[in-house]
């Protein structure tokens, strides 16, 4: 995970709480993005690492903005096929016909 992705999620949380810009953010999609990001960071972070600190910052920001789902640790049952986190592919690579 790049630092910019972590920053993007924090920025979206701030935009969501803004009285003017907040209506531009879909709360359900934001909650899903926060949950997926938290799961990813939590999976990869070592205790007392910078990534673990990022995890704690994001988790607290999500909690304070009411974007922390109670079941944030559970994987999505129906991943969004348009998201960079999901895929419609079955893993097979199609060969071009000649």
Overall mean confidence score, pLDDT: 78
Helix count from the secondary structure assignment: 3
Please give the largest β-sheet. none
N-to-C order of helices and strands: HHH
Proportion of residues in helical segments = 40-55%
- Terminal Cα separation, in Å? 39 Å
| Total beta strand runs | 0
- Molecular shape: globular
Sequence stretches where pLDDT stays below 50 over 5 or more residues? 85-89, 91-95
Helix and strand composition category:
mainly alpha
Computed Rg: 16 Å
Taken as a percent bin, the fraction of beta residues is under 5%
Features:
3 helices; 49% helix; 0% strand; mainly alpha; 98 residues
Task: Please describe what this structure looks like.
By secondary structure, the protein is an all-alpha fold. It has a domain at 3-64. It is built from 3 helices and no strands. Helix 2 runs antiparallel to helix 3 (50-64). It is globular and about 40 Å long. The relative contact order is 0.14.
Q: Would you spell out the secondary-structure blueprint of this structure?
A:
Blueprint: H1 3-17, H2 27-44, H3 50-64
